[in-house]
Write a structure and sequence with these properties.
The chain is an alpha+beta fold and about 400 residues long. The protein is built from 15 helices and 20 strands. It has a seven-stranded antiparallel sheet. The protein has a five-stranded parallel sheet with strand order 6-2-1-10-20, covered by helices on one side. The longest helix has 24 residues. Bound molecules: flavin-adenine dinucleotide. Flavin-adenine dinucleotide binds next to α1, β2, α2, β7 and α15.
């Protein structure tokens, strides 16, 4: 490593680490090294691109910040300092045009991450960022040297001026974010909350009637509630239970409840745009010779799947009571048995306790060590909020590193 400039060791080549690397290398004042255990950087970012790469969201900043729930207090300052508009500018500067989808989400025009990733790594290389691929962080020794293992399996230690930990969470571990850092970091006395799945599907024991007919079918335009959180949109019936965007919006509450060993009931509203009175009025029409299923299909315009869900999740013995039926159409109780494994979750909750950090994202017990991105204990729903949180905290840590070096390293 070049000894004339301070050396920065960024561990983790995901969007957080790369974003910090870009800011630090562009100062021209630092020797910036990115250590990445996979053979290329940004693998999860590239997979996120398969769903279109939702970079951020276009809504006003106040509702935007409210999406972070309890993490808003921590993230607000960092997002105000590097906003969704600045994420769009950043992509544009790399030659990638973006557009706002009908849901307000922001995507690259090509709806994938490959072009952006290619332009980004090229730019980082031109700034002098040095990549150490297939180099895994394996621990920290007693003298606070950072221990790595290279692709040949040989171990070595480095003692840079600054370390930025950006190793992500533990979802989709085959892409590199294995969460194996947890024990190494907590061994240094740093508080780390266990990593648990979030923005994931949940398991449910379907009866034998459901799956052959409905596996893979969407339940559309619904509202879900779980302990005050609300999700709207669609979800899909899967062989293990349910999955999809509306569910991800209540996922923080559901996953936390499972982690506390207090699973909670989620409520499914199949007709959120109707009032109870409107539903009752429809249900009070004469049924004639129609079976209940045909009556619900004709008069309530419920789909075969929605009717099957009512049979599956409601108390069947009460379905002929209009008051019960009208209520249950808007309040179907869904009792999950477990979240999907973390390996199948979009993101993880847990990570380095936010109280361990100062306002520049430096670990207060270890001056010169910074941390950012999904490795920290904040979480967010899908919709571009995760990447925005990673970009903004990556930038905040980089600015923090610059300031700390200015006052601590001569
Ligand atoms: C299928 C999928 C789709 C997604 N879609 C979106 C989306 O559209 N919009 C959105 O906002 N978010 C999305 N996300 C979430 C988003 O990708 C993550 O929140 C984000 O990538 C986290 O960034 P990060 O840099 O903090 O961590 P990561 O992207 O996880 O990067 C961490 C890096 O550190 C490396 N690493 C880990 N351990 C070590 C070690 N011991 N030594 C060296 N290197 C190590 C990993 O290999 C990895 O490259 C999606 C996630 C998934 C799984």
């Amino acid at each position: 490593m070049n000894q004339t400039k301070p050396t920065i060791c960024i561990i983790g080549g995901g969007p957080t680490g790369l974003f910090a690397a870009q800011h630090l290398a562009s100062t021209g004042q630092m020797d910036v090294h990115v250590f990445e255990q996979k053979a290329s950087v940004g693998r999860k970012f590239l997979i996120a691109g398969r769903g279109g790469l939702n970079l951020t969201h276009s809504e006003d900043i106040n509702p935007f910040l409210n999406r972070y729930g309890p993490a808003k207090d921590f993230l607000e300052k960092h997002i105000q300092a590097f906003t969704p508009d600045q994420v769009i500018e950043w992509a544009n500067e790399l030659g990638v045009e973006t557009f706002v989808g009908s849901s307000g989400r922001v995507f690259p025009k090509e709806m994938k991450a490959t072009g952006l990733m290619r332009a980004w790594t090229k730019h980082l290389t031109s700034l002098g960022v040095q990549f150490h691929l297939q180099h895994s962080f394996v621990g920290i020794d007693e003298e606070n040297q950072i221990l790595f293992r290279d692709k040949e399996g040989d171990g070595y230690a480095v003692k840079p001026d600054v370390v930025l930990y950006a190793m992500g969470g533990a979802s989709y571990p085959h892409l590199g974010s294995t969460g194996r850092w947890v024990n190494k970091i907590s061994a240094k006395g740093i508080e780390v909350a266990p990593l648990i799945p979030v923005n994931c599907g949940y398991e449910l024991e379907w009866s034998e009637h459901m799956l052959p007919r409905f596996a893979g079918e969407p339940i559309k335009n619904i509202t879900l509630t779980a302990d005050g959180l609300t999700g709207t949109g669609d979800m899909i019936v899967t062989e293990y239970g349910l999955e999809g965007g509306a569910l991800y919006a209540v996922s923080q509450t559901l996953s936390r409840a499972f982690a506390d060993d207090k699973p909670m009931t989620m409520t499914l509203n199949l007709r959120p745009h109707l009032s109870q009175e409107q539903i009752k009025e429809k249900l009070e029409q004469p049924r004639g010779k129609l079976t209940l299923t045909n009556f619900l299909r004709k008069k309530m315009k419920l789909t075969a799947l929605e009717i099957a869900l009512i049979h599956e999740l409601a108390d069947r013995s009460k379905l002929f009571n209009v008051n019960y039926l009208s209520n249950i159409i808007q309040n179907l109780p869904v009792e999950f048995t477990a979240p999907r494994p973390i390996t199948r979750a979009i993101s993880s909750m847990g990570g380095i306790d936010l109280d361990e950090l100062d306002e520049n994202l430096m670990l207060t017990s270890q001056p010169g060590w910074f941390a950012a991105g999904e490795m920290l204990n904040w979480d967010a729903p899908t919709g571009g909020y995760l990447l925005q949180g990673c970009f903004s905290t990556g930038k905040a840590a980089a600015v923090g590193i610059e300031n700390w070096l200015a006052s601590n390293v001569t």
